[in-house]
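Proteins fold reproducibly. Next comes an illustrative record:
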Amino acid sequence: MAAQCCCCKAPGAEAAPARPPPEPPPALDVASASSAQLFRLRHLQLGLELRPEARELAGCLVLELCALRPAPPALVLDAHPALRLHSAAFRRAPAAPAAAEPPCAFAFAAAGPGPPLPAFPEAPGAEPACRPLAFRVDPFTDYGSSLTVTLPPELQAHQPFQVILRYTSTDAPAIWWLDPELTYGNAKPFVFTQGHSVCNRSFFPCFDTPAVKCTYSAVVKAPSGVQVLMSATQSSYVEEEGVYRFHMEHPVPAYLVALVAGDLQPADIGPRSRVWAEPCLLPTATSKLAGAVEQWLSAAERLYGPYMWGRYDIVFLPPSFPIVAMENPCLTFIISSILESDEFLVIDVIHEVAHSWFGNAVTNATWEEMWLSEGLATYAQRRITTETYGAAFTCLETAFRLDALHRQMKLLGEDSPVSKLQVKLEPGVNPSHLMNLFTYEKGYCFVYYLSQLCGDPQRFDDFLRAYVEKYKFTSVVAQDLLDSFLSFFPELKEQSVDCRAGLEFERWLNATGPPLAEPDLSQGSSLTRPVEALFQLWTAEPLDQAAASASAIDISKWRTFQTALFLDRLLDGSPLPQEVVMSLSKCYSSLLDSMNAEIRIRWLQIVVRNDYYPDLHRVRRFLESQMSRMYTIPLYEDLCTGALKSFALEVFYQTQGRLHPNLRRTIQQILSQGLGPGAEPSAEQASATADSGVDADAPALLLGDEAPSSAISLRDVNVSA
């Protein structure tokens, strides 16, 4: 029987309830080619098959939509050249959205030459027949394409329908395939996805904008012995078929759909949390976080209301993970390299916990206002650490980050447009390029300023709780936050606090340069004063007396953030006089070499920036043991801007086989820039490149003659998303 328009009344049937007013269209996002403003996305279903040997993902995507106006000519989705679309089809959908639970199984059907592709069975209540649709793919930017699917001309407004797309994805920026050698266990292949900011359009066609949210479900088929996890609730696993089923009951933007698969094992660390890691890492991960995550979640709930996502699990990924952490709902992704740096681990996990309220539940509607997620999450993170570890520790960590902010500002210049909170995203510019410390720390300073206006942190917590309750599972712009703030505090609105001279809200959002006001960190002086005193000793005259006084201070008893802050100050002053570097090495080198990687990389950057050859063997040993961007890129940048380019080349050609291809390409780019005009690697180095399978003629190497700037290295950026 043909489906009726939802406006029609069947003979003898009761009148249909009044339709709610249409939702406002999403905010325009110049980073998206999609026609999201013309449709309401109700649900998406993914049927995926992982093919690690071919480094290929095969997918069937079912989008459940309603048009917001009659007869839209086409549906435009964000896609990517790495994604090959095999077919598109249309069918009418039942009036009610699909349940969050995915179908019990998915089948495979041929779609031309090659292995069969996943296909969902017919949904109950839907038209059994699918109508093929015409489609085309057009260029959009260097980070994506536009996929235009022609729709039937008779489509009515608010009439639910489905578009079914079958595709394969290879060499996708969102999908990272790792050979066993790039894992800790060296036993099984590994794959993970990273969607932030605009990479998931290479994972599946979508409205790749934070303005659009929907529920989703997934069925994933994986090779035997591979554990699959997603940023959702796992509902079942059929071992004999290797099929996992997941569902996400709350609306999320496309960038928060995430998948990981590999040799992963779980361990419970709390009543609603577990860690997942490779077997050799699991004991360490468990011992570091057992009981702590529940403590942080409980503190956050006291401040901002109930945790909405059910479970809070953590998966530790191999060092190839390109950032420190990612706040995927239900399943935070964290780079395993951070496990050895306890205080950084604590801060990074708490930051991702805070995103459960700010970023995941309430999301910035455009990438131009990422501070709405990152600034609020940073503020919430520091409220949680204050409640859990005290104000002194929070002030120390804040001082450390603000120090890095001022360093970045000095290098970029106070008139840099990226120092605005509301950054203008030009067409074609990748939104990921807007991720910097201003997003986090200038955003934090504005939120902190708002909290000071109301005079009581607890009252501001109450406001943020109400803000989350009002806007949860939606996307917002800055005006939504500020209007809510002034409505919650009418006395402040009467005082026109938004227009105070020099501190106008509009100026906070659109002025370049440093924060208009910074927090009072005096409660951390017991921890920051010794750092400043030691730094002053090392810059005092005469050196022998200063060194003697400094050696009496036992920094082995310091917190990690104290030592890191001290070394950052020395880095800011580099190059230092050689006699100072020699004395520093004599006093600290062996001690620092026994500390965690966050400390060691800072000392080694001092060694490199000061061309201190006696400690170069430590730089070599460090790079030989590291496979992570966060601990390799900053050193290679420094090596290539100084007199140690040949040393950098030598180390790279000896270690590149242990690096992910993406990281290899990035380091090659740094090395090729650092070589200068006309310079070429030696015959031995060229041979090593050929033997490693790295394309020495890759376009990424041909980027001009200027040496890269080591100014803004990854250590200066909180690269937790």
